[in-house]
Amino acid sequence: MPVKTEKLDSIIKTALEEDLPQGDITSESIIEPNFFSEAIILAKEMGILAGIEVAQRVFQLIDDTVIFRKRLKDGKPFDPGQILADLKGNSISILKAERTALNFLQRLSGIATITHKFVEALEGSKTAILDTRKTTPGLRALEKYAVRMGGGENHRFNLSEMVLIKDNHLCLVKSIAYAVQRARKKVGPEVEIEVEVSTLEEAEEAIKSGANRVMLDNMDLEELKKVVPQLKGRIALEVSGKVSLAEIKELGSLGVDYISIGSLTHSYKSIDISLEFLG
Known about the structure:
Blueprint: H1 5-19, H2 25-30, E1 36-43, E2 47-48, H3 52-62, E3 67-70, E4 77-78, E5 83-90, H4 91-121, E6 128-130, H5 140-149, E7 163-165, H6 167-170, H7 176-187, E8 193-197, H8 200-209, E9 213-217, H9 221-231, E10 236-240, H10 248-252, E11 258-260, H11 263-266, E12 273-277
Parallel strand pairs: 6-11, 7-8, 8-9, 9-10, 10-11
Antiparallel strand pairs: 1-5, 1-12, 2-4, 3-5
């Protein structure tokens, strides 16, 4: 499972309550309650699969007698026309679960697919692709799971995991040095401290203050080419800020440790996946 069963069930039940507040009045009105059907989940375009177990759990929560057989595991590529899963069970139950299951599957596969494109563009590089906290409220665990299925890595999951001193924090305190030293005193030596910087001078101050990582934020490529060689090997380096697929390869050639990309989870395109009844 991408997340603990209790957490996943809570997410799915919220989605089902949204879609079925008083049941499925169309299916329940026109289909005999004892009808049984076979169906497939079918890919309509290329992609990387993520969320097949989430989709399966949707059907189980609607009706645990529905048989759901996965044809492909999460993290694997698929082609148009490929069957991702087979279903057999009560027709009304399948229809009740259809849209919610596909909503999860299409969106998570969309995240995995775009992540894979960025990772693929950096093949041969030691630079890791990271996500951000720019996720759908309530769905962060699933969306970050989808990033991993696409070959990316997760940045911090939440504000409790690590210290990340950003520009808005620095508007409220005296300096980078003050912020890093105060944070270190509070969290101790085990917690990682990262500082968002926009100049070489700020990065130098972060290094001298004992930060573990600097985020070179919204620097253009030419500026990064000047700054990165002066910092590389002295501290972990992360590049961030509206990173596009067109420039990712050149950014990776700089030899930074991480490139974080918010668009993985806020501007992805859902993959076209459908459920089709057989016969």
